[in-house]
Design brief:
The protein folds into two domains: 2-248 and 453-475, Aldehyde Dehydrogenase, Chain A, domain 1, CATH 3.40.605.10; 252-434, Aldehyde Dehydrogenase, Chain A, domain 2 (3-Layer(aba) Sandwich). It is 38% helix and 22% strand. The protein contains 16 helices and 23 strands. The chain has helices at residues 40-57, 62-78, 80-91, 95-112, 115-118, 154-165, 180-192, 206-214, 227-239, 262-274, 294-306, 326-341, 375-378, 394-403, 417-426, 462-468; strands spanning 2-4, 6-8, 11-13, 20-25, 30-36, 123-128, 131-139, 142-146, 169-173, 199-201, 220-224, 243-247, 252-256, 284-290, 345-348, 365-368, 385-391, 406-407, 409-413, 431-434, 450-451, 454-455, 470-478. Strands 15-16-17-14-13-19-20 form a seven-stranded mixed β-sheet, sandwiched between helices. The protein has a six-stranded mixed β-sheet with strand order 10-9-8-11-12-22, sandwiched between helices. Strand 8 (142-146), helix 6 and strand 9 form a beta-alpha-beta unit. Helix 2 (62-78) runs antiparallel to helix 4 and helix 10 (262-274) crosses helix 11. The longest helix is centred in the first third of the chain and has 18 residues, at 40-57.
């Protein structure tokens, strides 16, 4: 059976632990690989290697670092087909969805190629007589990225390209459920010409995560995952003086107003709720139907669900694949059971889906008449379950969103520009779509929500990512005439 190892100091290392995790193909339910989990000594070795590499990598001019990132970008494009198949095999999402996620990751790589411009500081001449001031940005040191199973290639590429472009060295701890794509990416980075130790990969579980959080030589941690884990990472790492950006869970709302185009709204709801089987932090999981739009909208969504093709990700006509594991499949089914027991109307029942293939499948599920006190509404399900909450007014819709614990993404569907403008101003969420159901920012903006969807003050990638992975230094300089120097104990003034 294939065994996936760690990648440290430019090469695969077996590590010193005998602990292994199982890697399944979600479309068949069969185990296809094993992944070796790290011991503390394995992690210590990776950190020490990264710390040593930082001494020289951080001194390289940004232009030289950018040139290596350009080569990495070309290798990703050259090997995109193979990498996409790895994602499909271990995650289960359909081929086009996996390829699309790879493209969105590449946007951040392309942004990182412009690091010489991004790192330019500010200069002010003659802020006082013969006094100049300017700012520079310098790297932090060894930084770590802890990434989720749902985007095994894209989310790592949200982190390490900017981190290393800024002069840091990087340790990636990917999900142990689908480790092949991250390992392949790190190998491509080695092929691109990154010096040994600049980028390293350590596989592991919660124990490895906690060791990263407490390690004295790790200076910053980036994380994407569930809210409870994000909160733990933020509290633990900041207690040790580390810089942290921790993106948590979501309950993304899509508000449909009475003047909306029903077909556009229904197409968007189905696409955003059931793409990647709902295993997206930006998936629409709640439609807030305002007034009389509810009845025709629910029917339009239901009609589209009936025509969805569910099957293995490599099957050309599949539109939705399986969930990541049997455990997660059971969890999603339990939420559907809970919603029905609490009074929601099951319009489309994914529990009834019975594919010919074995695997971790749940069909697209639509629940109507969901209320905000139901478990199926409150919790992040992370599966193909769409809830419809009915409200009477635009203000009611805003209140529903504001009262939810999450504030990741939100969308509104309307033909009224004034209403849309009011929505974008007043809604309580970090990323807003207007007639766009999944408003994931492009690579040269930044990604991050509000409330329990983000712990830390800095969003991910884009300009915020550059600021997260660097620290600012401000220099004030004067070259006075030595003959005019004298003691002055007053508060310094630039006069």
């Amino acid at each position: 059976m294939n065994l996936i190892e760690h990648f440290v100091n430019g090469k695969i290392i077996p590590g010193s632990s005998d602990k292994k995790g199982k890697v399944f193909n979600p479309a068949t339910g069969e185990q296809e690989s094993e992944v070796r989990l790290a011991s503390k000594s394995d992690l210590d070795e990776a950190v020490e290697v990264a710390k040593k590499a930082f001494e020289t990598w951080s001194l390289k001019p940004p232009l030289q670092r950018a040139r290596v990132i350009f080569k990495f970008k070309e290798l990703i494009e050259k090997n995109s087909e193979e990498l996409t198949k790895m994602i499909v095999s271990e995650h289960g999402k359909v081929f086009e969805d996996a390829r699309g996620s790879l493209t969105r990751g590449l946007e951040v790589v392309e942004f990182a190629c412009g690091i010489p411009h991004l790192l330019k500081g500010e200069f002010s001449e003659n802020v006082g007589t013969n006094v100049d001031s300017w700012s520079i940005r310098q790297p932090l040191g060894v930084v770590a990225g802890i990434t989720p199973f749902n985007f095994p290639a894209m989310v790592p590429m949200w982190m390490f390209p900017i981190a290393i472009a800024c002069g840091n060295t990087f340790i990636l701890k990917p999900s142990d459920r689908n480790p092949s794509a991250p390992e392949f990416i790190i190998k491509l980075m080695n092929e691109a010409g990154f010096p040994k130790g600049v980028v390293n990969l350590i596989n592991g579980g919660a124990e490895t995560v906690n060791q990263l959080l407490s390690h004295d030589d790790v200076d910053a941690v980036s994380f994407v995952g569930s809210t409870p884990v994000a909160k733990h990472i933020y509290e633990s790492a900041t207690a040790g003086g580390k810089r942290v950006q921790a993106l948590g869970g979501a309950k993304n709302h899509m508000v449909v107003l009475p003047d909306a185009d029903i077909d556009l709204a229904a197409d968007s709801a189905v696409s955003a709720a059931y793409g990647s089987a709902g295993e997206r932090c930006m998936a629409i999981s709640v439609v807030v139907a305002v007034g009389e739009v509810a009845e025709p909208l629910v029917k339009a969504i239901s009609d589209r669900i009936d025509n969805l093709k569910i099957g293995p990700g490599m099957q050309p006509d599949s539109e939705m694949g399986p969930l990541i594991s049997e455990e997660h499949r059971s969890r999603v089914v339990d939420y559907i059971n809970s919603g029905e027991a609490e009074g929601a109307t099951v319009v489309c029942d994914g529990r009834m889906h019975s594919p010919e293939q074995k695997g971790f499948y749940v069909g697209a599920t639509l629940l109507d008449n969901v209320t905000t006190d139901m478990e199926v509404y409150r919790d992040e399900i992370f599966g193909p379950v769409l809830s419809v909450v009915r409200v009477q007014s635009f203000d009611d819709a805003l209140d529903v969103i504001a009262e939810n614990q999450y504030g990741n993404g939100v969308a509104v569907f309307t033909r009224d520009g004034g209403t849309a403008r009011q929505f974008q101003k007043n809604v309580q969420a970090g990323m807003v779509g207007i007639n766009v159901p999944i408003p994931v920012p492009v690579g040269y903006h930044s990604f991050g929500g509000w409330d329990d969807s983000l712990f830390g003050d800095t969003a991910m990638y884009g300009p915020e990512g550059m600021r997260f992975y660097t620290k600012q230094k401000v220099i004030t300089s004067r070259w006075p005439d030595p003959t005019s120097s004298q003691v002055d104990l007053g508060f310094p003034q630039n006069t």
